[in-house]
Amino acid sequence: MSVLIYTDSSNGALTKNAYEAANYGGQLAKAAGTEAIAVVAGSASGLEALGNYGISKVMHVSDAGLDNFDPQKIAHVVASAASETGADTIVFAHDYTGKSVAPRLSAKLDAGLVTGAIALPNGNVVKKAVFSGKAFAEIEIVTPTKIISVLPNSLDKVETGGSAEVVAFSVELPSTGITVKEIKKESTELSLTEADMVVSAGRGLKGPENWGMIEELAKELGAATACSRPVADIGWRPHHEHVGQTGIAIRPNLYIAAGISGAIQHLAGVNGSKVIVVINTDPEAPFFKAADYGIVGDAFEVVPKMIEAIKKLKA
Ligand SMILES: Cc1cc2nc3c(=O)[nH]c(=O)nc-3n(C[C@H](O)[C@H](O)[C@H](O)COP(=O)(O)OP(=O)(O)OC[C@H]3O[C@@H](n4cnc5c(N)ncnc54)[C@H](O)[C@@H]3O)c2cc1C
Asked: Does ligand 1 have an atom closer than 6 angstroms to the CB of 267?
């Protein structure tokens, strides 16, 4: 019995979410007195670093056929690794890859799945947030094999030190009936789901020509940019920046929202952020109720002052 963790890679390197999944699986294995083994699909290097999160061994399927994301092939790879290791718990990050691979694997292995876990399981019981973060559910997995996907930024990292043994693992890839020929990234900017900090703006900014200061603040902080849905709908910003119930759900350490009212559908995608800073001219804006720090003021005055202050601090 062991814990198997799927650790995703992008452009040849492990993703931030991969380390978080490893951290979760490593802590889970330690609590259960068993071994944590990672599986990696496609070209990737630096895999020994997973040892710092309690992973003892990394099974690397370096087949180039896995470089272009195909969830059916990855599900096959993870199922093969689970069979090889006899793993009874399989961990994914609850990101794009986890969302598309974990359910397939669940059907393939007849294994119970809980998506978006926010804490280590208590026995077979896994806790997750439901109803857009308004409540928690504790779900018991009753199948012999359990699959858990862990919500990004939900567990503190515990660094164990050490280096993982990396072994080549060979899997005959099935024909899935599709060939992913090319993946074009929407943007080369920092990925929203992986960003530690996000600067976001809404209709209060009046027009797309005013986003320069949002981009500058994000650049100074090393943050990604996001927006409310109407802003993306009217074409002021690209759709991949839209966060919320119908957009991307994010959980950065810092979320700065300028000129966003804080409608429930927006909050649904950002209320897992560790620290929320709201800038709004309306003291009654609902977003202030969810804010850790609120600034009642005009974004056109406040944001340039923040940029200036950060520049001074950095100098
Ligand atoms: C089914 C459904 C799904 C939805 N999904 C999403 C979603 O995923 N994401 C999402 O964002 N929305 C979503 N919405 C829309 C949501 O209900 C709100 O309409 C939307 O979030 C409002 O966007 P906003 O805050 O940018 O604009 P507004 O509601 O127009 O708010 C603008 C805010 O800016 C403030 N402001 C104005 N001028 C300034 C200034 N100079 N400085 C500072 N503040 C200023 C105002 O006081 C106001 O609070 C959804 C709606 C529905 C019905």
From this structure: no
